[in-house]
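Provenance and format

Records in this collection were gathered into a single text stream. Each protein contributes a sequence line and a token line. The two records reproduced below are adjacent in the stream.
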Amino acid sequence: MNLAAALPTPLLMFGATVVLSFVLGLELHGYRRAQDEGVGFGTTRTLTLIGAAGFVLWTLDGSAPRGLYLAGLAALAAWLLGDQWRGRRSAEAGALLPGLIALLAYTLGPLVQTQPDWMVAAVLIVAVLMLAEKPLIRRLSDAVPASEGATLAKFGILAGLVLPLLPDRPIPGLPSITYSGVWMAVVLISAISYAGYLAHTYAFPNAGTLLTGLLGGVYSSTAATVVLARQARADRAVAVLAPAATVLATAMMYIRLWLLIALLGHWRAALALALPFGVLLAGTLGVAAWLWRGARRDGNVAAAPKLGPHNPLDLPVAFLFAGLFVVFAALTAFVTSHFGDTGLHLLSFIVGFSDIDPFVLSLLAGHFQVSEQAVITAVLIASGSNNLLKAGYALALSRQRSMLPAAAWLLATLLLSLAWAAVAG
């Protein structure tokens, strides 16, 4: 017989509240010991009893307006204010953290009774991490400039303000593409690019050249190629690993494109591109590994080149992406209606010499007068011609013979993409 099923539900909820409050108390106690602080207010026993009291008062109230629970909250708040007043001369006793943890413990009872398990777990995990990871949080706070707060606010504007306000209706002249669909693509690609930007800027600020290529490729393989090529020309030590890093940045392009296609719900296109992208990715990673092994024998490897202050969450960048999305969608609609598959393939080759992300996403979002296979072929051609652009950048900007193998492979990926497109078409 299942013991949990045999016990009354209120008893299980009360037990969960007591255990969670006890865990908060243990973490607060450990935090104080780690900081060489006294026990002070908010011991493990105190927090456990506060959590139990919150559960009992919420249960006794039964329904709104929850007078008993609110009275208990007011009493707890007065107690915490009194502790703050008494501790004005002592940094330990007057700290805000124990009081905040006590308030959190008091709310655990209502949380356990009214919210799903994942919500309760998320609240407890955040509280525990805030207590247990103070050194890491302090290092992160010291390392992140104030401007990143504004950057996160921009993402809040992109995802939390603009996206809900946009209507889910077609753009005039583009019946298959909606305002909200365009902005969803902006939000998703901004999020992926920003993750790569944060990793390179803060998690691995002194990363080696190879890691620079990998992380740079997350938000722009073309930009990473340009920076690596320029640094390879200026510093022969960087030039040792720049070819491998350049190829690795292109490998990340395939991963980023495929993830964007899948996350935006274009499953049929993602499945159709899984094999060609997988083959190109495997080959690109193999070439990167071969170039890296060859570079290791040289030995003299410099620090990683800087990718600069490019921030993929800048609002002008987001608006530019949205504008390009709509422009490419309109251009694709015109070309496909007048020139069919051949016109689309030529357009995709030309677009490859610019930013291909808005073109690819607008192509997949629209229902143009071409076959689905023609659309998949256009994605392959655009990614291949973009690699041709990067090969030109790698050779022209680096002026290093060591870049020849990387440029040759990038050219080979174009030929492989065209060959695959020809066979599949």
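Adjacent record:
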Amino acid sequence: MKIYVPADSAAKALGADDVARAIIDEAARRGQEITLVRNGSRGMIWLEPLVEVETASGRTAFGPVTPKDAAALLDGTLAGLGPVESIPFFARQNRLTFARCGLIDPLSLADYEAHGGLSGLRRALAMDSAGIVQEVTNSGLRGRGGAGFPTGIKWDTVRKAQADRKYIVCNADEGDSGTFADRMIMEGDPFTLIEGMVIAGLGTGATKGFVYIRSEYPDAISVMQQAVSVARDQGLLGASVLGSGKAFDLEVRVGAGAYVCGEETSLLNSLEGKRGIVRAKPPLPALEGLFGKPTVVNNVLSLATIPVIFERGAAHYAGFGLGRSKGTMPIQIAGNVKRGGLFETAFGIPLGELVNDIAGGTATGRPVKAVQVGGPLGAYMPVSKFDTPFGYEEFDGQGGLIGHAGIVVFDDMTDMLGMARFAMEFCAVESCGKCTPCRIGAVRGVETIDRIGRGDAAAIPVLTDLCETMKDGSLCALGGFTPFPVMSALTHFPDDFARHKEAAE
């Protein structure tokens, strides 16, 4: 009897470890032989711990499972959900990047290969560097970390750069509120990230890679370290990748908790052992990055998507999506929702469908008031914008941004002036201090919003002017994007700002 119990952080937070122990103990008490696999999460957090049992007709899902359910699970009397693939939330997805997550043993390279892993790398090994980069360019893949920059252009810049050493750096410093896709893929399918980084190295001429993971992800750090060790032992990493004679190796490095190190140049400073502060650009990291060498800095999801592009072809991947937003996006649904989790789908789905249909509306049952898309620096989208298709240009046209595709839902009890203040305070706390608009502007922003909260309507134009200064003058996205949540709250929810004036009077 083969049983899958997730070792994903979210599942563990909801009791997966206790469930696993209860199943093992119950099987031992009965003298029943079982194989327990600690897999990744399928992404349906409201059903975690989601346990799957392998049967002759396929895997049957049960969830949420408690330790008290162990006996019924082994008896075969516990009510099940059927195959995971038949659960509506899962069935409606286009799983490409996350196709194996929750399906395989994360640390079994044999299991990874049995489900299509390494086929993309083997294809890439038969191509030259220009062909590899062209395939990525043809796929239309854009950076999944937030900026949406075309991945092929970045790779080609590094490929053409002349240097004695080049690097691939994976930005796994996932610090945005409501985001967890990077963590999920690292904990549930780490070899796809490793394979993607190896292909990036082959395409650009880099022979060394680093995965920079935030310290708040101890499980992801552990899984990635073990996966790198397995990959090195089995010839996926090292002096001759899969016996090809081409070298690529990588290391896992742990950040120290600074949000700003999610910005690529701050991350590079941190990797070099320096203070994590933003660098002025130019020079671009693609020309002078880590240790002054040409460097590809890509997000986890960008690199983890590379294997499927090479496995199925650029045209297949580019066949999904909308306009210039090609492929799929793992959208992370959080906040006040009935069904939170990871939903991978082609670009183009309307925001309202994600919130009302996929997520099931609010957990409280109250009307949705706002949805913040793109982390703490993302704009608050009102219900009137729910017909906006999920795409980079489409969101930009509505004064928003997709970012890392985390969406956080708020009901009608939320005070949007308070949320605007939180955005400014977040920026003030997390600023690296390098540039004045961010360092000083965010502090003044909190003070100005507090004036509005005390009923001073004259402070509203001051806030607007301050946001323009931060947007135009900040060195990086931390200060430059903080005006998005602030101004969207002020623009779309003016009654929340006026209410404080009325209360003061």
